[in-house]
Design a protein that fits this description.
Keywords: Membrane, Transmembrane, Transmembrane helix
Number of strands: 5
Largest sheet: 5 strands, antiparallel
Number of helices: 9
Distance between the termini: 70 Å
Radius of gyration: 23 Å
Number of domains: 2
Helix content: 55-70%
Order of helices and strands: HHHHHHHHHEEEEE
Length: about 250
């Protein structure tokens, strides 16, 4: 396409269309920022529940934190999209009056299958209880709703709903803070970086030997609960610090 054609196309855009584009881009940026802040809210809740705060985790653990947060955001959005997949063809039908029946049926089948798996897992698992399912499903529906509105709705509607979702997120996180903390704890435990996994801390000279439950391994400190205690101890990490995690590191149950 020549520069003249591009110039003519640009001149055909009305001021109202430019205004609409601006507000849509702003809505997208704000929504994306909020989605990326969700894991930070989760981690702050985890620290609040365990009565500690790690400055160095946010200041120095930049690469690991970004990778961890990105994985958490992608997982949350993916799970939300799968659980509420029928909302996508329904949103297209509401705003564009186009209903793709095969896509709707397929999305209902896929979504129902995953809901059945989630409900079955909540029955047999000690971690996936009803509050957890309610919290994740509400958060998931809010995320999918905002994604659909970003595609189809007017910017005013997007901003209004986004404000409501932000308020709802903080409210639910406060009400179900144990669920949020458990979610982060389980994720940290799977990486051996916290969540109450058994830990032994020592140094290369073996001048000390500490055992307990690892809460969080940050760049500068190891936060853990000593066996038999509920308070958190922070051990400064240096070049001689060694810590091992695993069930074999539990000398006694806390």
């Amino acid at each position: 396409m020549s520069l003249d054609k591009i110039s003519r196309k640009t001149s055909e855009i009305s001021p109202q269309q430019l205004k609409d584009i601006f507000w849509r881009v702003l809505s997208f940026l704000l929504s994306s920022t909020f989605f990326t802040l969700i894991p930070i809210i989760f981690f702050l809740t985890y620290m609040l529940e365990n009565n500690f705060f790690s400055y160095d985790f946010f200041e120095k653990g930049l690469f690991g934190m970004k990778a961890f947060f990105s994985l958490l955001v992608i997982s949350l959005i993916t799970i939300s999209a799968v659980l509420f997949m029928p909302t996508f063809p329904l949103a297209a039908w509401k705003y564009e009056r186009k209903l793709n029946i095969p896509n709707l049926i397929l999305s209902i089948v896929i979504s129902s299958s995953f809901w059945a798996i989630a409900i079955y897992a909540s029955i047999i698992s000690s971690d996936l209880k009803l509050p957890f399912i309610l919290y994740i499903s509400t958060m998931g529906f809010s995320i999918v709703l905002q994604i659909n509105l970003m595609v189809y709705a007017k910017p005013k509607v997007q901003f209004t709903v986004l404000s409501m979702i932000i308020a709802l997120t903080f409210y639910l996180t406060f009400i179900f803070k144990d669920v949020t903390s458990g979610l982060i704890g389980n994720t940290l435990r799977s990486y051996g970086s916290g969540g109450g996994v058994c830990v032994t801390i020592t140094d290369t000279l073996e001048s000390y030997d500490l055992k307990g439950r690892l809460i969080l391994a940050s760049p500068d400190y190891i936060y853990f609960k000593s066996n038999g205690f509920t308070s958190i101890t922070a051990v400064k990490v240096d070049s001689r610090t060694i810590y091992k995690t695993g069930n074999e590191e539990c000398s006694e149950d806390t």
